């Protein structure tokens, strides 16, 4: 019921998001569209939650103020810093894994783009939380990060398959063709799979 406070950082982040989208696609989204995109069902619930908890959010919570500053670079934390600027080990590995889809991936900006980029961001965030709050001395290696990334991508694929179940989700179920189109060209041994692989056992 109360008027929403005007936060400078929120205004700046919305404007930067809008400019980035316009540069990539030529489309200029409204503030409402940007906020709605964070609630998109294309993103897993935990991913949607973490997107709004970054930046200044942490500095206002007791005992979590240390989450507001990057311990590696000694600068204020932000989504941009976590995702693309931080020198912490693992960030570049995650993006290189995501970019392995090559030109095909970037030419199909849409549902798959949203899923995989959100997975990359979320994994980078999880690596940071583990480093800062769980076990700062925990050794990381490329294979371990690769396995975490692959596990999250496979979870996204399996989630899509489950959401096509009309018996379980009724009118809210995803259309099979949307899922087939989203993941087409990315599956292991795809040529040996049936055209409708969604219900294939052991997949």
- Helix content range: 55-70%
Describe the biggest sheet?
Answer: none
Domain count: 1
In whole angstroms, the N-to-C terminal distance is 49 Å
Annotation, overall tally of beta strands: 0
Organism: Mycena metata
Protein name: Reverse transcriptase zinc-binding domain-containing protein
Keywords: Membrane, Transmembrane, Transmembrane helix
Transmembrane segments: 104-125
Descriptive account of the structure:
The chain is mainly alpha-helical and 203 residues long. The chain has one domain. The chain is built from 10 helices and no strands. Helix 5 packs antiparallel against helix 7 and helix 7 crosses helix 8.
Task: Give a quick set of tags describing it.
Reverse transcriptase zinc-binding domain-containing protein; 203 residues; globular; mainly alpha; 55% helix
């Amino acid at each position: 019921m109360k008027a929403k406070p005007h936060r400078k950082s929120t205004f700046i982040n919305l404007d930067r998001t809008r400019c980035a989208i316009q540069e990539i696609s030529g489309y200029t989204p409204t503030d409402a569209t940007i906020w709605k995109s964070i609630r998109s069902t294309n993103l897993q619930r935990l991913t949607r939650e973490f997107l709004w908890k970054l930046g200044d959010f942490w500095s206002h919570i007791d005992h979590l103020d240390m989450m507001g500053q990057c311990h590696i670079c000694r600068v204020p934390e932000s989504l941009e810093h976590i995702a693309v600027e931080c020198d912490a080990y693992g960030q570049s590995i995650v993006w290189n894994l995501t970019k392995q889809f090559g030109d095909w991936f970037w030419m199909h900006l849409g549902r798959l783009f949203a899923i995989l980029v959100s997975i990359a961001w979320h994994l980078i965030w999880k690596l940071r939380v583990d480093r800062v709050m769980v076990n700062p001395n925990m050794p990381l290696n490329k294979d371990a990060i690769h396995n975490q990334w692959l596990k999250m991508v496979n979870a996204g694929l399996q989630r899509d398959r489950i959401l096509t179940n009309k018996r379980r989700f009724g009118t809210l179920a995803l259309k099979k063709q949307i899922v087939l189109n989203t993941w087409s060209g990315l599956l292991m041994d795809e040529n040996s799979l049936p055209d409708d692989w969604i219900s294939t056992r052991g997949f």
